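The instructor's notes for this session suggest beginning with a concrete chain rather than abstract definitions. Hand out the sequence below and ask the class to guess, before any prediction is shown, which regions might be ordered.
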Amino acid sequence: MATSVKLDNDLKNRIQTLADSRKRSSHWIMREAIRDYVEREEARESFKQEALASWEAYQETGRHLTGTELSDWLTTWGTDKEAEIPLCHE
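After discussion, reveal the predicted structure:
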């Protein structure tokens, strides 16, 4: 699938300068930039969907952990007394 993108001259020049300094083609720079953007936005959307699902589950069940419970658990990570994740409660 061929796609074209219209870029202003300033951006074209900036891409070419970067490509030259990296010893890459401007096509490679643009492809990498688009790939990075898409991956970042997909991750952001995934996080959003996970948060919405968690909120819906909380609204249905009322089960949760408090911020303090979560923080206390996280502070055990990487220590000799690493704890299991606390159980959710109402």
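Then share the key points. The chain has a mean pLDDT of 96. Residues 38 and 44 are 10 Å apart (CA to CA).
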